[in-house]
Write a structure and sequence with these properties.
The strands form three sheets. The protein has a nine-stranded mixed β-sheet with strand order 10-11-13-9-14-17-16-15-19. The protein is about 15% helix and about 35% strand. The protein is globular, with a radius of gyration of 19 Å. It has two domains: about 20-125, 2,3-Dihydroxybiphenyl 1,2-Dioxygenase, domain 1; about 165-315, 2,3-Dihydroxybiphenyl 1,2-Dioxygenase, domain 1, CATH 3.10.180.10. The chain is built from five helices and 19 strands. The chain is an alpha+beta fold. The longest helix has 13 residues, at about 230-245. It has helices at about 30-40, 85-95, 175-185, 230-245, 295-300; strands at about 20-30, 45-50, 50-55, 65-70, 75-80, 100, 110-115, 120-125, 165-170, 190-195, 200, 205-210, 210-215, 220-230, 250-255, 260-265, 275-280, 280-285, 300-305.
Amino acid sequence: MTAIGGYVAPTASSDEFGIHSLDQFVLAVPDVNAADDFYTNFGLNMVRKGNTLQLKTFGHEHAWGSVIEGKAKALHHLSFGCYAEDIDRLKKRIEGQGIKLIDPPPGFESNGFWFRNHEGILMEVKVAPKVSPDQKAVSEWNTVGPGQAAATTRAASPAVRPRRLSHVLIFTADVLKSIEFYERTLGLRLSDRASDLVAFMHGIHGSDHHLLALVKSSAPGFHHCSWDVSSINDIGLGAMRMHDKGYQKGWGLGRHVLGSNYFHYVMDPWGSFAEYSCDIDYIPKDDRWPSADHKPEDSFYLWGPDVPREFTLNREAGEA
C-alpha cells in the first residue's frame, strides 16, 4: 500500500472525526469517447490523463470524477477526502469494524487507504483538500425592470457550466444497513430518509444536505451524479442543450422535497443519469439537522412531471 507522506492538508475545527468530502467518483464504461461526448455537452471540462478521462468544472482544477474503460458500465469506486489528523483514526475505526484494507487498484495512486464496503463496492479514504462547500451555494434569481427584456435568444444563450459536484446517488440492496455502515465507518450523518427506500447523508464538517444518497435496488450500482449550477435558468438551458445534442431521455424540471433542490436529470449512454441541481439545502458543521423518516409518496418531489420508468432501473443489475 502506498505510504502517506509529503502532504499537508487543512486542519479540522471539530473534535469529531469523519470524512469531509466526496472527493470523486470513478466509473468504468465500455466507450470512453461516448463519455467524453456526453459530459462535454453537459458542460464539464473533460481532461484526458493517460487512460483516464477526468471530469472537471471550468475554472477549478479538482477532478470531481473520472471515467475509465471497462467491459460494461459499472461504479468502479468512490473516493472520500479527510483531514490529515483524521486519516489514522479513520483507518483504525474501519479496521476495528473487521474490514480488511486492500491495495489500490492498478493505475491509481493513493494518499490514503482502500477497502470494500459491505456490498463489495471499492472505496478509498485519503488526505485531501475539502471540496464540499463551507457555506450554502449562492443561487441567482435575476430579473429586470419594466421596459427591458430578461431573456436572450436561443442562439445567444450562454453555455451552462456546472460549478462543482454536489453528490452521487448509488443503489444498495439494503438502505438501512448502508446508513449504519457509512455512519460507523466514514462518520457520515443521516439527513433524511423515506422508509427503507431512499436515504440522504451529509458530512460532519459542513456539506450540502447530502453528499451521498442511497436508493434501494436488487444490487449495488451507480444511479446519478449531481452537479451544482447557479440558477433554474441554467437547469433549463442545460436540459435544452442536451436534448438538442440527442440526449432526450431524463426527468425534470422539478423540485425535490428532501434537499429542496430544483433538478433536471439527463440519461447518459448507459442508463444512469447526470443531474443539473440548483439551490440545495446546506447543513453547517455546527448544526444538527433534524433527520426524519418521511412518507415516500409525500417526499420524493414537490412538483414536476411524472417519474419515467427508466429512472428507477439499475442497469448494472441487469434491470430493463
